[in-house]
Amino acid sequence: MTIKRTIMGQLPYGADLYESLSEIVRREWITLGRIQAIGATTHAVVAYYDQQTKTYNPLEFSGGMEILNLNGNISIRDGNPFVHVHILLGDAHGKVFGGHLLPGTKLFACEVTIDEFDGEGLSRSKEERTGLFLWTSGMLP
Ligand code: ZN
User: Fold this and answer.
1) Could you give the domains of the chain?
2) Are 97 and 2 in contact (CB under 8 A)?
3) CB-based neighbours (< 5 A) of ligand 1, an ion
4) Rounded to the nearest whole angstrom, what is the distance from the C-alpha of residue 85 to the centroid of ligand 1?
5) Considering the entire predicted model, what is its pTM?
6) pLDDT at residue 140 tops 90
């Protein structure tokens, strides 16, 4: 895959991380790409996906945390650009927590890089076995 363009910048203090990333990819209409970021949060909301119950169990982290790594991809869900992001957070002692990013994470600072790829956007739909919205094409051998 080749990179069509790269968007690099910082998100505002107090912004909702997931909503901000979603807004950018919808505004720029990116249907195939990847996201990475570093920064810090004042409050974080992530989830752990329980494979037995097939539900996302939320986890919240209040107070300042470092965004040690944020990694995600951009594809299509319900006809719109959709971001799927996982995040690693570090506390004051260097302990690391993380999960599937949910709305509700508030930023202290965040530096983001978004790469848009050339090519057809991948689409998501619900897969019964996992209960997850996975890509309907692009299965690797
Ligand atoms: Zn996830």
Assistant:
1) 3-120 (3.30.1330.80)
2) no
3) 100
4) 6
5) 0.95
6) no
